[in-house]
Amino acid sequence: MRVDVLVAPRSDDELWDLDDEAVRLRPYMTGDVFADVDDGDAEHVAVMIVGHPCVIRGSRGRLARRVPCCVVKQMQDELPYDQWPEGRFHLFPVPDALGLGEHHAAYLLEWRSVRQGELRRDRRRATMTDRGVYILQQRFTHAITRYATVLADFEAATIKEMREAELEHEWVADLVADPADDAAVNEQVLAFHTFLDEGGYRKLLRQEGGETRLRAIVRTEIKRRRGAH
User: Fold this and answer.
1) Quick one: 150 and 196 in the same domain?
2) How many structural domains are present in the chain?
3) Domain interval for residue 187
4) Are 126 and 98 within 8 A, CB to CB?
5) Segment 156-160 long-range contacts (CB within 8 Å, at least 24 positions apart)
6) Could you tell me what percent of the chain has a pLDDT over 90?
7) Are 197 and 217 in the same domain?
8) Are 62 and 165 in contact (CB under 8 A)?
9) Are residues 52 and 37 in the same domain?
10) In a 3-state reduction of DSSP, which class is residue 49?
């Protein structure tokens, strides 16, 4: 494994996707931020998912019974992006636009095992770009090991899950009429993963050129299902 320096992001847009549709419809993912979550100690806090995509989900796209998260709370003062490689390595700042208040951050050494039912879509305040996920994984790993792995290694370890998540988002966005209808969203998430499992299509993500083939297969099925309604 190669060693690198910690990344200093250039802007919020490099890390975060705050589009309303993305926040409602993207699959649960590493870096998602939720507000008003019961942490198990009768307190309601904001949290950030820090587990790898394979760790936070079980079969058919369902969240694991317990999801590894970090607490998000106020910092003493701002931590500009250009200072990220220099210190306060236990912090991963989040934008004020999330509505949590000024100068908030995920405290990467304050962990919680959050119950699945607490991470509701209507409580999600932000989701990350792919690059944002890799930067979070780098900073989180460095916080507990003081070892800064290059982002390319995190991308290689996560890319199949990220491409699958893109296809799930496309499927749900195209087949759900109302993004606020959580029951309809959950129904289509299950339908997407059932389609992959029963067709044996998931293995395409491990094959050269398989991603392109899978995208075509999924888009054809989306069109078929839309035409059936």
Assistant:
1) no
2) 2
3) 158-227
4) yes
5) 157/52, 158/30, 158/52, 158/53, 158/133, 158/134, 160/205, 160/206
6) 82
7) yes
8) no
9) yes
10) strand
- CA 105 to the chain's CA centroid: 16
Q: Is the Cβ–Cβ distance between 57 and 193 less than 8 Å?
A: no
Residues 165 and 110 in one domain: no
Q: Are 158 and 134 in contact (CB under 8 A)?
A: yes
Confirm if 18 and 95 have CB atoms less than 8 A apart: yes
Q: Which of 154, 182, 200 is the last residue of a domain?
A: 154
pLDDT in tens, 46-105: 999 999 998 998 777 789 999 999 999 999 889 999 999 998 999 999 999 998 988 999
Please give the Cα distance from 229 to 220 (Å, whole number).
15
Helix axes 151-175, 182-199, angle to 10 degrees: 110
Q: What Rg do the C-alpha atoms of the chain give, in angstroms?
A: 18
- Which residues have CB under 8 Å from 171's CB, separation 6+? 188, 191, 192, 218, 222
Report how far apart the first and last C-alpha atoms of the chain are (Å, whole number).
Answer: 50
- Which residue, chain included where needed, has tokens 């969240």? 63
